[in-house]
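hey so i finally got around to running the thing on that chain from the lab meeting. sorry it took forever, my laptop kept dying and i had to restart like 3 times. anyway pasting the input first so we r on the same page abt which one it is
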Amino acid sequence: MLAALLWKFKAPLIGFGVAVLLVFGGYVWLRHHDSVLLSGYVKQVELTAANAKMETEQKRADAANAALDVLRKKTDADAVAAQAKNEKLEKSIDDYETKLAALGRSCRADGNDVQWVHEH
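ok and heres what got predicted. didnt touch it at all, straight out
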């Protein structure tokens, strides 16, 4: 009886079996396809993140270099100003000594005394 019933509905059963196989095969193919796409997507996202990080680090490095350049220029300007101040002081001392010599006077401080004042 079961065999007769199966024989009677063989076409629908075969169609149902083919449909089940197609659905299962489609599911397997879609899962594989999605995993490949997802893998590529993850790699793309990682690459984009790495590029963004590299750009950020480059901007930081550029900012640090710019700050270093500003500091170097300021240090150079300070050194030039200090040199000019020292030269002005030396000229002032020389002018004062010349003035004293013209009046017949001299400074009682010798070179060692001047050196001590400069150091302290």
